[in-house]
Amino acid sequence: MFIYIASHAVQSNWSFANIEKFHWSPKMIGVSLGVVGLLVGLVQGLLIRVINPILGNEKSVYVGIALYAIGLFLFAFGTSSFIGNSSGWVMFIFLIPYCLGGISGPALQSLISVHVPKNEQGELQGSLTSIMSVTSIVGPLLMTGLFSYFSNPKHGFYFPGVSFLMGAILMLFSAIVAYRVLKDDPVVKAHEPKG
Prior knowledge:
CATH topology: Growth Hormone, Chain: A
Structural class: mainly alpha
Largest sheet: none
Oligomer: single chain
Mean pLDDT: 90
Shape: globular
CATH architecture: Up-down Bundle
């Protein structure tokens, strides 16, 4: 659940934060989203098939969440006044670890699905979709609210990357929860590659 809320830091604020800090044009926003699409396509279409079997699902979850958190942390400070980058080109570099975090999604769904009998997989997927729907209400409200407050200099502390930082914190919290749940799970261990 926290992973889905954290993802709204980017989905809800990417254009706002980059326009606020770097004065990106609609064309630049479009180019950046095109790069996101290309990177996500490469990760989902190619890298997952190679990386996840090597790492196993459990490690793929941890590595993916860590990459998401790193990407969000970099976005947070790339869109802050702490980095004196006026053009925003560095955000394209920061997209790489963020998009590589996509290896965690299929691995996490695989780990969840091994706990449910085959005749209940549809119910599981419906439940996951319901969780995503709820977070699609909470996530944008939280992330755009944070951005709105902290991008207004009148409030005393100007930090337009705050939503990305909140996303990184939620990702780290998700990694802790995943570790506590998965570390001693015999069903998960039985489905991991040997060696």
